[in-house]
Amino acid sequence: MKKKIITYNVNGVRAALNKGLIQWLKAANPDVLCLQEIKAEKEQVDIAVFEELGYKYHYWYSAQKKGYSGVAILSKIKPDNVVYGCGIKAYDDEARILRADFGDISVISAYHPSGSSGDERQAFKMKWLDDFLNYVTKLQKERPKLIISGDYNICHKAIDIHNPKSNANTSGFLPEEREWFDKFVEAGWVDSFRHFNQEPHQYSWWSYRAGSRGKNLGWRIDYNMVTKNLQSQLKRSAILPDALHSDHCPVLLEIEF
């Protein structure tokens, strides 16, 4: 049966709700919604509005620091098992990984760190990237069929960013970050969007500065990455730029499940 998975960095779920997130969700109607940067505790969110749309199974993972980071998974399908975190305290304090198992397929909502605030966070990001790849490689032995949906905070290739030359030394498009993405793909991962779409000017994040979104001066940093053993089950992927609840937009994956 075909299932619809959407990843969406909402840049604050309460702010997104105030901008019409529920009306959009009703129309988009994914089976599984992976959120990043929720910036809230579960108790601060009106859960009932999600449950009324059929998302009876919802899991919220909030950072220790209030109003920061955090991920969630909302599902119309009951998962067999839910795992919070990756077992590394520095990352779990920031609530960056949440996993739900549906039969033999696992869906992860992941929020990779940004390095744009300075050298310290860039170093944290690079350490995370190495640890993240180790984590998912080990996890594959136990759960071979994985979908990792989320904000990776990296444009993989020049086609994924509006101005590759001027951003060559910018966090999110650094050579070492892109090399890591190459290594990740080589380890057996498929970029489900690029599996279907090779067109340029397809972005999932725009700066709030200088009317970037209206001019489509964006970055593609949100992905639904799948293990290669799921490639034959991919049906469709699309970026949904008309959703305006965040500086990101949602990215859709349809997959036989």
Distance between the termini: 6 Å
Number of E strands: 14
Low-confidence runs: none
Q: Can you count the helices?
A: 7
Structural class: alpha+beta
Radius of gyration: 17 Å
Portion in helices: 10-25%
CATH topology: Deoxyribonuclease I, Chain A
What is the overall shape?
globular
Query: Strand arrangement, largest sheet?
Result: 3-4-2-1-14-13
Mean pLDDT: 98
CATH class: Alpha Beta
- What is the beta-strand fraction? 25-35%
Instruction: State the CATH architecture.
Output: 4-Layer Sandwich
CATH superfamily: Endonuclease/exonuclease/phosphatase
Return the string of H and E elements: EHHEHEEEHEEHEHEHEEEEE
**Count of separate structural domains:** 1
Mind summarizing the main beta sheet?
Answer: 6 strands, mixed
Characterize this entry briefly.
The protein has helices at residues 13-18, 21-28, 48-51, 89-92, 119-142, 175-186, 192-196; strands at residues 2-9, 32-36, 57-61, 71-75, 81-84, 97-102, 105-111, 145-151, 189-191, 205-206, 218-219, 222-227, 234-239, 251-256.
List keywords for this structure.
Deoxyribonuclease I, Chain A; 7 helices; six-stranded mixed beta sheet; globular; alpha+beta; 257 residues
